[in-house]
Write a structure and sequence with these properties.
The protein has about 450 residues and is α+β, with helices and mostly antiparallel strands. About 40% of the residues lie in helices and about 15% in strands. The chain has 15 helices and twelve strands. Strands 2, 6, 7, 8, 9 and 10 form a six-stranded antiparallel sheet that branches. The radius of gyration is 22 Å and the shape is globular. Bound molecules: adenosine monophosphate (AMP) and magnesium ion.
Amino acid sequence: MNKKPFPSPYRPDSQIASLGAQIGDPAQPANFPETILRFRNDRWAETIGLADYDDATWIRHFGRFEPLPGNMPVPLALRYHGHQFRVYNPDIGDGRGFLFAQMREGDDRLLDLGTKGSGTTPYSRRGDGRLTLKGGVREILATEMLEALGVNTSKTFSIIETGEALMRGDEPSPTRSAVMVRLSHSHIRIGSFQRVAAEGDAEFMQQLITYCLTQLYNVALSENPAAQLLALAVERVADLAASYMTAGFVHGVLNTDNINITGESFDYGPWRFTEYWDPQFTAAYFDESGLYAFGRQAEALHWNLGQLAVALRLVSEAPPLISALERFPELYQRAIIRRFLWRLGVESIGEAEDRQLVEAAERAMSRERIPIDRFFHYYRFGSQGAFATPGEYQIAFTELLQKHTSVDAHRDAYWTNGRICSMLINEVEDIWQAIAEKDDWQPLNDKVSAIRAMGRALNACS
Ligand code: AMP
Ligand code: MG
């Protein structure tokens, strides 16, 4: 499951320096005409000891990018390649972001502050290095919702409006600009390994693997560190794939450069939540073949891990890598069951029975077209009472559900009194329209509060 905030004093630890000049290139932030603070994530600022910054200090660091005390003196645009829609592209890398700072949180995890929209870098090519304000607002909504639904996700740490007019093909233009700071458990991607493999640099590959194992996974090296890292990544990514399903989430762009080696979900562009359990549902308008459709996300992530294995062949024989990869389907199945039970709020009663319950839930949702969030909201307290005329699949599901014990000793009033909290595209657009037309941020703030209330009821957030 995702981690909850773990308060800590500020403990800078810029470990990235140990990887030398090979990992990235010095980058300069853009000098923005304005810096208007729109969102600060104080829940998560507490985990890295920065919640007591006043707004002016916050803006100096996260809008002007004055280095944090004792942290990276110069930001780094990280190098990477990647498969985009299965086509290898060596011409990518941090083109509108950089790694800005690193620190330890309360339980010692090494966290990164990285940016999106902070200006051009050596990897911008024809891009402007910028992020639209709408893109920033969408990042807030995606990360808050996913966190509440138990998904291991990056956090939107800060959004500052920057006063530029941007031209974009997928938004009415000119459109407003912003710079985002993301808090995440590393910015090393599968594509980071692909770049090192493409350059044939075995020595740096070993260094990168060592960094990931010792700094990110906090483990000692085994005799085959490459296979060890792949095995750990397979575990995390299989769980991530399952978590997208139980959240009803479609990431939209599951390219290898968007897959973090820690298995933490990040980089939210054209994402959508699907209303129904519809495997064909796609998020990105440009995903014409449905490669990253709702029901194909596990396959896409498994394929990406295969590309990580290909890259790791530079320093490892194939058999141990293949063994690690082959565990994916089983790990995914187990994670699906665990996460379904979690969202339904019931305990396991054995593998076969649990599996039947999950299959019955999927059948009920898809054949009787019950919105996913409605289904989970009402069945959280084990009742079909909310459904006027339950169909045969729902009845079959309810019979199986009744065999399971609820985990809520005192059913949280949220499930009887709270409103169903969804994140469907119309609501996302309405929240943005209020900002675009009236500069009204209330609907966004209200939504974040509602999402966090759901997270607390699910015991995903504190
Ligand atoms: P994404 O689709 O956000 O994962 O980005 C894929 C690649 O395009 C990355 O190398 C980004 O840095 C780059 N990129 C996306 N948008 C821009 C932009 N506005 N300016 C420069 N580079 C960009
Ligand atoms: Mg990306």
